[in-house]
């Protein structure tokens, strides 16, 4: 049975991207941290994306084509390309990457059933789409990468007006000050 995991970089003040839409401050270019992200996502066989996150992540479709790409980039690109992707969008005409399907609506009950039937984990990526899944109560784990920066505004990591009770399972600190936290979502 697959788990649905919400995991991405967030600033200390709770933003997944800043007011300019950037998340370059997240630390994903740190080779050790990037290798850890690659290792953590090996269990993920399906990525669920909103359109904006999908467009950002589609970089990985061609990352192996760059002859000077560092090994940590090549490693993550191979992991990403091996997984299936589902994009939820009403505005995207067609997917631009392999192993990708397009869905027009996000149906939490259908997503929960699909993830439960998987023999691997799935992630829900992008705070806007994740907010729907968190509110619907279908997220099993939240795994933020807490970057040592305050950005002052932007796109929030957590949806407003949502209470979640979480159980800390694991934490890991990195030399660049990033903290990875793995929480189970408690259900009553």
TrEMBL record:
Pfam families: RibD_C (PF01872)
InterPro entries with a match to the protein in the record: DHFR-like_dom_sf (IPR024072), RibDG_C (IPR002734), Riboflavin_Biosynth_HTPR (IPR050765)
Domain Bacterial bifunctional deaminase-reductase C-terminal: residue ranges: 4-177
Protein name per the record: Dihydrofolate reductase family protein
Organism: Georgenia faecalis
